[in-house]
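Re: fe (iii) ion structure - here you go.
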Amino acid sequence: MKKLLINNIGMLASPCGKEARRGKAQGEIRILRKAWLLIEGGHIAALGEGEPPAADAVILDAGGKLVTPGLVDAHTHLIFGGWRQNELGLKLHGVTYLEILAQGGGILSTVKATREATEDELFAKAWDALDEMLDLGVTTAEAKSGYGLDLETELKQLRVIRRLHEEHPVDLAATFLGAHALPPEYKEDREAYLRLLCERVIPRVAEEKLAEFCDVFCETGVFSAEESHRILEAGKRFGLIPKIHADEIDPIGGSQLTEAVGAISAEHLIVCPPEGIAAMAKAGTVACCLPATSFYLGSTFAPVRDMIAAGVPVALASDFNPGSCPSLNLQFVMNLGCLRYKMTPEEVLTGVTLNAAAAIARAENIGSLEERKLADLVIWDAPDLDYICYRMGSNLAETVIKKGMIKKGYLHGILD
Ligand code: NIG
Ligand code: FE
């Protein structure tokens, strides 16, 4: 495979290392000016400032612009049937998210549409969403099941994720979220659903190697902290790494569970109490915060400054789903990270690259621009890092490179 030299980079901005960065270190990134970066065999071979080395390579002139690692979206509900635009009117009339769910709408209406969709229909729909993500600068994403809530449909969603990972340029990490809601057919028998998950579905997911992570929606009216604990422990017995949707609407103990189960990440954390922050700091859990969901729900924003002060590594992700966040735009998430979480652009960059990679156990290979990591990167239509956090509503990702191949922009496909 031919080498690729990216030359004339105005600013190269990247966190460093192979693990999540916490506290003050979250905001300490490496900045190179007048830089170059050499790619070989899909990996970063070398990078530096000043004159590039003489190399037999295709040359891509970055035009003095900003280069960062490819964005990593560590939390999406990518695979679903239908949409839920009908809920907008209800929201505007003051019906809350949990009220819609309790009436059999919300997640449960997406479950119906997802059960009815064929595997190919789900694949085609998610493919388009992944194309849009790539166009916005995302090179790796996490994707959850959780709109099946029965053995067959959960497996169907996870198989779609596997196929997409194999065929689409964006790499995917799969999470099993069978505990996303109580399915209607188990309304009168919660215990039977919990047993189905722990004794039949989780073992099958593990047997077919369809997921790396197990997540639960720990929330009022959904799954209690005790039930969440039980499901995550069952997942662990089958090698699934725990994640947890915690403190999105009510603080019912989800974030405190992170320490007990050794969760790799906790998600949302909008109303995370101090004890939850302390538990995450102790467990080394990545706080995966989803500001576009707060924005869309009209709720408050997660106490990210307190998390950073307490030494909790923070990742930012989209939460793309048809209910609480019908947006997959990680650039908008970056804007909100600054404006609503009061993070610095440097902290935000770490949040959507290295810390996001750590939230899905990928920090060894992606999330920063360093020798031997995968050559996943974005050339931005921007002179510096501040600019991409400050401009809103435009897509500033100009060239997107995945494993050394140009997937968007000038010279697109030249190396494929
Ligand atoms: O992360 N909170 C639970 N799950 C999603 C929403 C799913 C839906 O409404 O369809 C979330 O916000
Ligand atoms: Fe979510």
